[in-house]
Amino acid sequence: MNPLCVTWAPFVWTDIGWVNLQNFVQSGFYNIIGQPDGILHRKLSRLAFEVKGDAWEPFAFGQKSWAYHIAEKFGIKLIFYGENGDLEYGGSTKYKHSPKESLEDWAKHYYKGGDIDELAKVGLDKGIFKKEEILPDKLNWYKPPAPEKVERLGLEMHWYSYYTKWTPQENYYYVVKNTGFIPNDMGRTESTYTKYVSIDDKMDGLHFYLGYMKFGLGRCSRDAQQDIRRHHITREEGVALVHRYDHEFPKRYFPWMLEYLGIEEDFFWEVMDFYREQSNVWERENGQWKLTHIVS
User: Fold this and answer.
1) Separation CA 137–CA 157 (nearest Å)
2) Where is the domain boundary, 125, 146, 162?
3) Which domain holds residue 20?
């Protein structure tokens, strides 16, 4: 096969993330990078942080859609994604016995019921956007082609994990050997014990920490759960790791986060507290936030 690879750019590459992408290309692949309008992307991220509790969401929109746009432009009918995240990390089992998913389900399953158009409209109402900033041609990259167009062109996306067992640690060993992948050169990733998963984007730490604010499950919980299910660690080891790292704040890129989103630190914690108040996993005790339940 002669695959055309595509990369929807991170908000800002980490140094090791950029090196790993270059190593991948140099190991024998064509790759097209999609870099969205920086002003629009930053405003979308700022808006998503406040109203949906996930500044990372604009990246997710493009990550899902970019491959479809390139496939359409080059007349490539078969699109491969990596893993079915719902099945691998927890979520809907609707496509447990299918290698592909319906485009109509994207907004419901991945974007909390709201697509890019709804997010942009809220931004317009809040005065974050001007009308000319969110014209359809500017937002189209954040959503796939219309389903009827995809069907007419015969485009199909398939999950690679449907055909081959998806084991992140084994994937890691494979890419080290075959594409020159380098793990985090600063040691383990903040909020967890791993050093090779999701290390290319400076926004990743905030994304996982916001999940901890809303659901009481942080980055370490996610990693440990996978490793326990795959029998790489015991449940007792996983519990110990979660107690040690799940609550850890990702401070390494925190100043960059504030500057990128254009917010003050006080507002950042105001949003954090809002989402803790909306959840049923946090309570205040003597003026301090405390999880109502910690895995044991």
Assistant:
1) 23
2) 162
3) 4-162
